[in-house]
Each structure stands twice: as C-alpha cells, then as structure tokens.
Amino acid sequence: MASASTSEVMWMMTIIGLLAGVMPVAIGMLWFPFIKSLDNIWVHAALALSAGILAFIGIEMVEEMFENGEAIAESGAGTVELAIATAVGVVGIAGTFYLMKTFSQWRLDAAMGETNPGLKVAYMIAIGLGLHSIGEGLAIGTSFATGAYSAVTILVVGFVLHNITEGLSIVAALARDADRPPLYHFVAVGFLAGGPLVFGSWLGIFAFTPVVAILFLAIGVGAIIEVIWEVTELVRIDTGAAISKINAATFVGGVVLMFLLEEVLVEGYILG
C-alpha cells in the first residue's frame, strides 16, 4: 500500500466510499414502496423514526468533536489552539444551523401551495446526512493513512449497516407526498446523502487534523439539528401537532435502533 500512487489511493477511497456510502443508502431507499403504502399516521411515525436516527447521529458527532478536542489538548497545544478549536466547533454548529434554517424558510415560502413539500424535506435530510458522511469518510481515510487496514474493514461494515437506515429516513419524507417523484430525485438524494463519504475519505488521507475534523463534525451537527427541526415542522403542518404517542415511540425507536447497530453490533460484536 505504501508504494501506491496518489491517484491509485484516491481511486481506492472512491470505491470504498461508494460501497460504504451510496450503496447502503440506496438499499435503504428500497423501502419506499412499502412506506408509500402506509396510512399517513404511519408515514409520520416513519418520519419520527428518521428524526430519532438523526438525533443519535448528532449526539455521536458531538462526542467525536470532544474526542478530537481531547486529542488537541493531549498533543500539548496551548490555550490559543484550544480556543480556536472551540470557536470552530461553536461557529460551525450555529452558523450551519442558521444558514440552513434561512434557506429552509426561503424554500418553505416558495413551496406554499405546492403538493409535494416532502421532496424538499428529503433533500434537506440528504444534505444533513451527507455532511455526516464526511465524518464517516474522515474515519476511514485516517485509518487507511495510518496503516490500520483491519480498522478500515470494520468501519466499512459498520457504516454499511448504519447507512441503510439513512436511506429509510430519506424515503420517509418522500412517502409523505401524494405524487411519486421522478427516479432522478431518488438518485440525487442518494448521492447527496452517501457521496460525501468519498470526499471525507480523501480529506482523511491528505489533509486530516483534529481541527479539520471538528469543523466538519460541527457543520454536520448544525445541519442535523436543522433537519430534525424540518422533519418536525413537516409533521406539524400535516397534523397540527408534531408530537403524538406513536411519533414519540418511533423517535425513541430510531435512537435505540442506532444504538443497537453502532454500540452493540459494531463495537460490541464486530470489534469484540
């Protein structure tokens, strides 16, 4: 591997990124016909499930931000470096949330009277998941760069399992609309959600630093917070109340599902 050229490494990371990012999202999106056949109450429950999945991902990314902050502190960095890293994290979260909220409000105003706002929410979900995928790519790229090839394999397996649920969260929004969107929309949101993993893997190999990781993680957290807000608003517009017993149960179910996939199956079973 050490003798591989830059182009060969980038091509390898591209293939790995597509397999770990785009492919499982596409598999998860195959649930669309089933979700589309459900009554609205269960479509909203599926949206709440997707919000729970996103919430777990957001919490996980915050933990990773703290881990990178600890890495900076353990490296002997001074107060200025730590302050910069903290500012990058705070501004990244708040700034991304504000920008996406502004864009979302503009989109919502433009969509008033349209019959398919769920399609636009699906794109917002895909963007949020795509920013998260950069963080996944960072993990794969840095493991590859340090020669931890077994860790790369484990991460790919874990992310495949993880990203199938992301595809489900996207089609939950699409299923809410009366009209089925053209096929190219499914292709577009699939690449938006999973494709950035390729970029993250390149970044992990050639330009990784804890501050860079914190920046992209913070952008992902801010985007996920806004997307959860967006999903909640979509349900509220449909029903007048975003919270119901069923929605609350499926939201918790989404969190539990991700916990079982990541903490129990991947870290406990595969790593164990």
TrEMBL record:
Q: Which domain of life is it from?
A: Archaea
Q: Does the keyword Ribonucleoprotein apply?
A: no
Q: Which UniProt keywords are listed?
A: Membrane, Transmembrane, Transmembrane helix
Stretches that traverse the bilayer: 12-34, 41-62, 82-100, 121-145, 151-175, 182-199, 205-229, 241-261
Full protein name: Zinc transporter
